[in-house]
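Tokens as discussed.
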């Protein structure tokens, strides 16, 4: 799961909790004592979501289907693909989302940790979360992330497979997402 899916799952929590979920990929290590408790709880929640998704049988099945030279990178690509399907489910292609607006407000309010410091302003300024509803945009984002990795762009090499698998991945998402929501969605209150 990527920014949008994590935001959706954490939306019932405080702003600190949501922000912690959003910036968790930029936070290293298990010692979260330097973070406010709400932010630390959000970081821990994000990590639980990632562990749940990474260990899910649907994700294991998809990784086995991925082309072997790029299989190692499939998880990164799938995180953005899941955001695409969340965006479609939320109908972000036709209406602005209060959740996205809240997410952008939080991301603008303070700088993200070093690993995300350059990505987050671009994500917000270019409105990636709404744009994930467009699969072509999602694929360009995947390829762009691949340019930041050393060596050949294995993520860009995955894009044709993702395009071929789009309908099947949509079915996979419908098998995965309800279980993720049931296990890890934070309800208001």
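Sequence:
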């Amino acid at each position: 799961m990527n920014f949008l899916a994590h935001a959706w799952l954490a939306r019932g929590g405080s702003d600190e909790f949501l922000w912690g979920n959003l910036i968790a990929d930029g936070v290293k290590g298990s010692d979260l004592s330097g973070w406010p408790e709400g932010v630390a709880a959000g970081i821990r929640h994000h990590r639980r979501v990632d562990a749940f998704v990474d260990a899910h049988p649907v994700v294991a099945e998809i990784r086995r289907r991925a082309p072997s030279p790029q299989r190692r990178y499939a998880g990164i690509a799938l995180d953005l693909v899941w955001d695409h399907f969340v965006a479609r489910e939320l109908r972000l292609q036709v209406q602005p989302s209060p959740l996205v607006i809240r997410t952008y407000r939080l991301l603008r309010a303070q700088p993200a940790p070093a690993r995300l410091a350059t990505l987050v302003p671009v994500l917000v300024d270019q409105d990636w979360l709404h744009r994930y509803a467009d699969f072509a945009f999602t694929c360009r984002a995947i390829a762009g992330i691949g340019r930041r990795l050393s060596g050949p762009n294995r993520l860009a090499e995955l894009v044709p497979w993702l395009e071929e698998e789009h309908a099947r991945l949509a079915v996979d998402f419908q098998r995965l997402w309800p279980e993720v929501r049931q296990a890890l969605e934070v309800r208001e209150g």
